[in-house]
From TrEMBL:
Locations listed in the record: Mitochondrion inner membrane
InterPro entries xrefs: Amino_oxidase, FAD/NAD-bd_sf, Protoporphyrinogen_oxidase, Zeta_carotene_desat/Oxidored
Annotated organism of origin: Orbilia ellipsospora
Main function: Catalyzes the 6-electron oxidation of protoporphyrinogen-IX to form protoporphyrin-IX.
Note on how the cofactor is bound: Binds 1 FAD per subunit.
Keyword Transmembrane helix part of the UniProt annotation: no
EC number: 1.3.3.4
Pathway where it operates: Porphyrin-containing compound metabolism; protoporphyrin-IX biosynthesis; protoporphyrin-IX from protoporphyrinogen-IX: step 1/1
Name by which UniProt lists this protein: Protoporphyrinogen oxidase
Cofactor: FAD
First-tier enzyme category under EC: oxidoreductase
Assigned protein family: Belongs to the protoporphyrinogen/coproporphyrinogen oxidase family. Protoporphyrinogen oxidase subfamily.
A GO cellular component entry from the record: mitochondrial inner membrane
Gene name of the encoded protein: HEM14
Pfam families the record matches: Amino_oxidase (PF01593)
Amino acid sequence: MIRLQKPPTWRCRPVANSYVSRRTLLGWSKKPDVFTMPQSSEAWHRSVEQHPDLQRDPPQSVAILGAGITGLTAAYNLCRFSPETNITLLEASPRTGGWVRSQTVSTPNGRILFESGPRSLRPWTVNGIITLNLIEHLKLESEMILVPKTSPAAQNRYIYYANQLNKLPSSLSSAFSALRLPVMKGAVGPMLLEPFRRRRPADIEDESVESFLTRRFGPNVTNNLISAVFHGIYAGDIAKLSANALMHDQYRNEKVYGSIVRGAMGVQESILEDQILRSMYSVRTRMLGSIKGTSIYSFKGGMETLTKALDEDLRVQDNVVVKTGVEVTGLRYNHDTKSIEVRGLEGPDNSFDFVISALSGAKTASLLPPGTADTLLETSSVTVMVVNLFYDQPNKVGHSGFGYLIPKSVPIEQNPHRALGVIFDSDAMPGQDEREGTKVTVMLGGHWWDDRASFPSEEEGLMMAKEVLQQHLGITDMPVETMVSLQRDCIPQYGVHHAGRLRQAHEDLMDKMGGRLVLAGNSYGGVGLNDCVRSGRDAAFEVAAGKPMTGLERWVYEETWVANH
Ligand SMILES: C=Cc1c2[nH]c(c1C)Cc1[nH]c(c(CCC(=O)O)c1C)Cc1[nH]c(c(C)c1CCC(=O)O)Cc1[nH]c(c(C)c1C=C)C2
């Protein structure tokens, strides 16, 4: 059994940063309601999850904005954490599920499943375990497809560089042969020297991923390898993304141990709150034993199986109303009644004790009176064109594995359509299609389209994707089925000083929205599906207690790191 640490409530204090002035820092210490709520304490988590009536002042009514994975998860959890609360889940579009969308195409030779959003999940992070727990609650275990760690999808990932696919090493032995690859040129020397480089000055709070890693590993590793990985998660430009937000452990390791490598080789540590949640949810999730050896997973019916199950569950709850096609136009805080009016929602019952916004940070800020939480407006998002293609011949790609990514260092002649990468879906998630053949997805755009006033049409996108596959993989055949989706502003970009902006937003929201507006979703602490599930769960957990919060507390208090058990 894992022993939990004593709650370190005494350590919770605001951290200085470039956005929060000394005056507001002092102001903070006069807000005892915030300080009496120890975010990171074991007692706190236990009290709400195990003794629902303890230390709680449950809200009567809560509105949740946005019925994507975050909003659905927030509603699902709030319904359990606080059964006495009336929950209204509002969604602007006609369907729930948000970016998660699995579409089935019926063909004479069987059905094909196309994903236009996230398509696989990793089980073994703390947020991954929380998602598994949710799946278990929803009784979806029999619907899961597990991809083992020994499969080509888990072992083989490629980077397109110097006109060829370079297979990234998946083990120490393959690392030696990988040293001969073009993409590894100039990488080894700087990597070996990293432990001996000087650490950054103590007053540097953040910088770009590119600047951080160029300092530590030199430009080749950064531009040829790391930029590709950041294309494959954020579709973003490492020159703009925040090292502190997106490489938090490594950035801290440089500060604490003087080196990324030395930190990784030393005592492994994690944030106390994550460790507590990991142990709590591991104990409660039975299926962890049966999915041992799993690298990634999805569902037979695609990722939308999860959001559909959440939707179906919520619609039969007495205290939950799901309303689609409702566009929220504004949020106004009433200081006297301590409630938030949700504009755009018809009828007299449009004031709520709490609102959880699972909309993007920028969209949420735009609903507030000007000047309420303006730093949230600074988090931009990128647009990605997702092109799914199905070919009748099996093994059409000529390589087996998860897929390949294209680094920013690849010259435009070798990547004229600004593709970010290609997923080999038939390998990455086998067993979702009835029809025999090869399924791939080409992802285009992302930060490369930052300054564009308009985007390619679906026809243009399809043509571009086919040309990418021809140029990189030599595929000249026509696909038998295709689907193109332009995902506008789908991935938020955590720019340099992301944490500082969130700290400022927290201050502003506590002052101007009374701690009644709680933020959740992919604009803050992680863009992945697992991160959204965690974020929805955390927001529900906080609101269930009825204490003024913003959901951004994590950026305000100094973290407590503890050694992993
Ligand atoms: C080519 C572009 C993209 C590919 N996937 C995404 C983009 C923009 C989106 C994406 N991928 C990951 C996440 C976060 C976590 C999640 O919900 O699963 C997001 C938003 C996961 C991910 N994909 C790759 C890596 C290294 C990671 C991080 C964690 C993990 O190892 O799973 C690599 C990768 N992504 C794409 C390809 C083709 C590829 C590697 C060959 C597509």
